[in-house]
Structure formats: C-alpha cells, structure tokens
Design goal:
By secondary structure, the protein is of the alpha/beta class. It has 14 helices and 13 strands. The chain binds pyridoxal-5'-phosphate. Residues 11, 77-79, 103-104, 106-107, 149, 175, 177-178, 199, 201, 212 line the site of pyridoxal-5'-phosphate.
Length: 409
C-alpha cells in the first residue's frame, strides 16, 4: 500500500490509473480564466519572471480582499504555506500539535518536519471537521498548538476553537486549503487561525497550478518575520520597499515565493473566480436537492452545513452506508461515464505516522468517526466550468448505479 495514494485521491487522477476517457465527465477540469494567457504573455515579454512582481501584488490584493483585508503572502503551494507557518511560529521538538486525521498529508508533515509531535483528533460526523469536542478529547497537557482544517470549507464554530486555544495559550493554525470564499458567521475562513494557509492547487476552487498563500491575522511581527523566512531568510522585501539599502541573511528561511508566471495565472483566475463560484454553487445545490431522496432510499448521508456557514462549494460528497461497496460504485459510475473520487487515507493510519509513533513509543489514536467516514466517502465531479447537463448526467449515473447495486443484493 503506497502512502496516501492507494486510490482516487482528489489531487491525483482518480483510481491512480488513467485519465478519464473521451466523453467521460471528469472529476475535475481546468479551463483557463479569461486573460490567463494574456497575463502570461505579458510576463514573458517583460522578462521579469522571478517573484514579487506586479502580478504577485495583484493576486495578493485579490486574496486579501476575499479575506476582508488580512495580511497575505503568496507562496508556491498550500504545503509550503503550512511549512512557512510552522517556521514563523517557531514550532520545534517541544511542541505537540493537534489536528484532524481526516486531512491531507501536508497538514501534518509541516509540523513533523520541525520535529513536533503530531496528535490526531477525530471529526464531527456531520460537518466532517474537527470541532471543539474532538479537539478537547485529543488535547493533552503537552499540547502547545492546534491546526484546524475546515473540511470542504465547513466547520461548526471555528471562532469557538480559536477562543478555546487562546484561553489555554495554544497557538492556532488554520489549514484553509478548501476554504477560500467560505465564511462562518460572516467572517472569512482563513482568518480564524493566527496563521492560516490557502491552496491554489489545480484541484482547488482557484488554481495557479501549484500555488498557495500564507495568511497572518492580527500579528504584524509575525507577518514581518514571514516575509523574511519566505525570501531565503533575507530582508529582501524590506530592501524592495526601500526601507534598507542592502539585504542580508537574517533568519534560517527558505524560498517560498512563486514566480510571476504562476502569479499571472493566479491573478487571472482570481479575477474570474465569481463566475466559476456561481457554477460550482449551482452544481452543488442541484446535487444536494436531487440526491436528497436517495438518503432515505439507500441510507446515504451528506455533509451537514451549519446555518452559520457560507460554504465554498469545494466538495460534494456522499457518505455510503456499510451495505454499499464504494469500489463497486466507483466502477459502475465509471462505466456510466462519470469519474468520481475519494479521499483521505486517514493520517492516523498512515505509514509515516506509524514510524513517528513507533520512534516515540506512542499508541495509535482511536478515531471511530474518521475510521467510519474515510472508507465510505465518495466525491462527485465539481469544477468551475461544470454545466447543469453534466450535473444531470452525474445524478442519473448515481441513481442508476445505486439501483443496480441494491438489486444485486
Ligand atoms: C487540506 C489540505 N491541506 C493542504 C493541502 C496542500 O496544498 P498544496 O497541494 O497546494 O500543496 C491540500 C491539498 O490538496 C489539502 O487538501
């Protein structure tokens, strides 16, 4: 079993085998935003391909707007944003970081790379995110930090988790890779952690191919440090602003700034995001309404969206009862022209965690909700240019495939 990629993770071609056949409705599809090619041509013609040029500033300003004015730094990926966040917070071997197991490997690796102990928490069976009860159950006297991950941009109360952490002096991180444009009680996700991260991977609502952002909330000193750590540990950002007459090595950092080529695409994608978001929401709503009768008929579940949440239509998932075999359903959907996908291989069961736990003499966490959800969650095609005809075809394929599986029992 290869770590993390045993099946159809959202970031890989579903099934890990082949691209969708012609005529198939893909799980994810990228179509360039208007002006993406024009922006790229402008960068190439101008010759400024390295980072922190005009398109980086444009993309950063658009992300900042989406986050109600938070401090933002563009990075090379969501993964690198998490690594940068851990560096900014000076995470080290004395830290114990609690996070959900039902997340992508990068959430954990960023902290493990700094030598911290990662402790996995369970998820709420409705929202599929770690909420306060799961966090409290996972915290130990050694816990020093918490990383939330609003699954599909949905959490019951991220503000309550941030408050809990503040009361106990725990550092608060927020992996908001799924959550651009989502809000909780009117406040953008990505502004609840002192340090939050976004992903603009090709599978996300806004794509820069491989790109991300670090968000620093209400912490100007941390923002200043992040700028240095992101630029090979130098104060080049201050130099470019004319604040110092030369730049020098100040901190042990790395290179987390994307090239202007990536920023040019990202700036175009952010400018065109409203239309893609509208398509995503229309598709999400159609799935929700038209698949609703299947809940009672087959015992399916869907993610609970608390009334306080404006979700970003990033994920549409159905959770199958134990009587329905996910692999068989994926195969039938494929035969019906639909490429569905699944994730995540829970991190508390991952080989890397086994190795880290064994070295520290720790037992595996017991996370019954994660263990039940992970093998039964199936994601349906959802992308910014999906049409209602495609959604209709997916819904019919789901109905037919489930009926066939039921009649075979
Ligand atoms: C929850 C979560 N965190 C972090 C990442 C990493 O983001 P990136 O692919 O931009 O490195 C992902 C990407 O899929 C993710 O889903």
């Amino acid at each position: 079993m290869r770590y993390g990629f045993t099946g159809s993770q959202s970031k890989t071609i579903p099934q890990g085998r082949s691209a969708p056949a012609a005529g198939m409705i893909p799980f994810n599809r990228y179509e360039p935003a208007p002006h993406a090619a024009e922006n790229l041509a402008q960068v190439l013609a101008g010759g400024h391909l390295s980072g922190d040029g005009p398109f980086t500033r444009m993309a950063t300003a658009r992300i900042r707007d989406a986050l109600d004015g938070a401090d933002v730094l563009l990075t090379t990926s969501g993964t690198h944003s998490l690594e940068l966040a851990a560096l900014v917070a000076r995470i080290g071997p004395d830290d114990e970081v609690v996070m959900p197991s039902f997340t992508f490997s990068s959430t954990a690796a960023a902290f493990a790379l700094r030598g911290a102990r990662v402790r996995f928490a369970d998820i709420d069976p409705g929202t599929l995110s770690m909420e306060r009860p799961q966090l409290e159950a996972a915290c130990t006297p050694a816990t020093t930090a918490v990383c939330m991950m609003p699954y599909g941009g949905v959490m019951r109360d991220p503000g309550e988790i941030a408050g809990f952490c503040n009361e106990r002096g725990l550092q608060v991180f927020e992996d908001a890779a799924h959550a651009i444009f989502a809000r909780s009680s009117g406040r953008p996700f990505g502004t609840f952690g002192r340090l939050a991260t976004l992903s603009f991977h090709n599978t996300k609502n806004v794509s820069g191919g491989e790109a991300g952002a670090l968000v620093v909330n209400g912490a100007p000193e941390a923002f200043a440090l992040a700028q240095v750590l992101r630029e090979k540990g130098t104060n080049r950002a201050a130099f470019l602003r004319g604040e110092v007459d030369k730049y020098t090595w100040r901190e042990v950092g790395s290179s987390y700034l994307p090239s202007e080529l990536v920023a040019a695409v990202l700036a175009a994608e952010l400018a065109g995001a409203a239309e893609k978001q509208a398509n995503r929401h229309a598709a999400w709503q159609a799935y929700r309404e038209r698949l609703d009768p299947l809940r009672a008929r087959y015992g399916l579940r869907m993610q609970e969206i608390p009334p306080t949440v404006e979700h970003p239509a990033h994920v549409f998932a159905i959770i199958l009862p134990a009587s329905i075999d996910r692999t068989a359903l994926l195969g039938l959907l494929r035969a019906n022209g639909v490429q569905a996908a699944w994730h995540y291989e829970p991190l508390h069961r991952a080989v890397a965690h086994d190795r880290l736990r064994a070295a520290a003499g720790r037992d595996r966490e017991e996370l019954p909700v994660t263990d039940a959800v992970a093998p039964s969650l199936l994601r349906l095609p959802l992308y910014g240019t999906i049409t209602l005809e495609e959604v209709d075809a997916v819904i019919r394929a789901v109905e037919e495939s489930l009926a066939r599986l039921a009649s075979a029992r």
